[in-house]
Amino acid sequence: MAEATATFEVRRNGTASVVDIRGDVTAGSEEVLMSAYDAAADARAIILNFSGLSYMNSGGIGLLVTLLVRANRRSQRLLAFGLSDHYRQIFELTRLDEAVGIHDTEAAALAAAGVR
Amino acid sequence: MADTDPAAADRDATNWAKNISRLNVSSTAGQSIPRNVDGKRVAGPFQGFGRMWQKTYQVRLPLAEVSSTGLIATWKARFPDFWPSGNTFYAPLTGIAPGEVALLDVGLPGGRMKLSTGVMVLYADDESFTLMTPQGHMFAGWITFSATELDEHVVAQAQILMRASDPIFELGLELGGHKQEDVFWQQTMTALATHLGHPEATVDTKVVCVDKKRQWSKWANVWHSSAIRSAIYMLGAPVRGLVHRRRTS
Fold it and tell me: What is the pLDDT of residue B168?
């Protein structure tokens, strides 16, 4: 398996879990991402913070799809904020934006998740 | 917003396709007819109808003979050559590069009908490339081809993340289509290994159902079905031939 080049730190904010992503997200990030998800599993919403993202390849996008399926299975919402213009466009191109709520700021994502 | 590392920004611009709303195949050198691709949107796994599958096909080759980047360079350059006979991949003029569209003619069981469709190159770097399907393709999703160096070997991999596009394709996949697809990619991987001097390499296949739910809200995808449109086009061939003969006589 490829080496993990990203970190995923989970912090709780009310009924949501915010996952702070740092580094390069690739297929090699699967184990650490899924561990982070397990740590956030009892939340009603999972909010991905992409502010610290350096790079993501198509393997990384594939991981997000897998994460989304797992979240849907548990009736959790998946939201994102902090995406650069480039990765917003990648979300649009891959049509992930139709399944993941994208917001400009953490406050906006938390509000959309119903957390105050 | 995300950090702007110049090297990462450069990789972003180079490796990913530009955001587009509709596919345009006018610049493709393929000989297939782009009727099922031109003007279509791309469709990811969440736009499909059927159950979601992740299928992985791998072959291991000695690292001493080929590097991961060398393998991917070969795979990109000779991609159509590794396809099983009876199927045609019309590569873009500029090769497999982000944003390019390739046309495909894929043989269906029975051998009489060909399904004309296509793919867009979503992503490409030195160690991987990803093809994404358009609306109407037999499945909605993407295929990532990659090579990883591991324990004195290079592992060449094709990994598909997909849902059948519509209820008809879902039925077809359940009635033998999945098996046919496995054979297709196993033959492709064997052809790649053979080209690299290892016809004896075995293909490891791993199939995982990622999501058992069908997305019934997507049943209307059938409107775009390349199978139905290809069949209508084939059935209309005698009429078009007659019209063409009258015009030229």
Answer: 92
**Are B17 and A95 within 8 A, CB to CB?**
no
Residues of chain B with pLDDT under 50: none
Residue B150: its chain A contacts at CB < 8 A? 1
3-state helix, strand, coil in chain A (%, to 5): 40, 35, 25
Contact B46 A92 (CB under 8 A): no
Chain A residue numbers touching B20 (CB-CB < 8 A): 93
Domain-wise residue ranges, chain B: 17-212
Q: How many CA atoms lie within 13 A of B102 on its CB side?
A: 24
The answer to whether the Cβ–Cβ distance between B47 and A55 falls below 8 Å is no
* pLDDT score at A102: 97
Rounded to the nearest angstrom, the minimum Cα separation between B231 and chain A is 29
- Rounded Cα gap, residues A29 and A40, in angstroms: 17
Domains in chain A with CATH codes? 5-107 (3.30.750.24)
Find the CB nearest A87 among B2, B11, B211. Answer: B2
Query: Which of A93, A100, A102 to mutate to test binding with chain B, by most B CBs within 10 Å of its CB?
Result: A93
Place A94 in a pLDDT band, splitting at 50, 70 and 90: very high
Q: Determine what percent of chain B falls in helix, strand and coil, rounding each to the nearest 5.
A: 35, 30, 35
Q: What is the pLDDT at residue A41?
A: 82
Where do we find the tokens 């793919």? B119
Comparing A49 with B228, which gets the higher pLDDT?
Answer: A49
Task: Please tell me the pTM assigned to this model.
Answer: 0.86
**CATH number of this structure's domain B17-212:** 3.30.530.20
Mean pLDDT of A95-102: 94
Residue B111 confidence (pLDDT): 62
CB contact under 8 A, A57 and B45: no
What b/e readout covers B200-212, taking b as 16+ CB neighbours within 10 angstroms?
ebebeeeeeebbe
A81 touches chain B (CB under 8 A): no
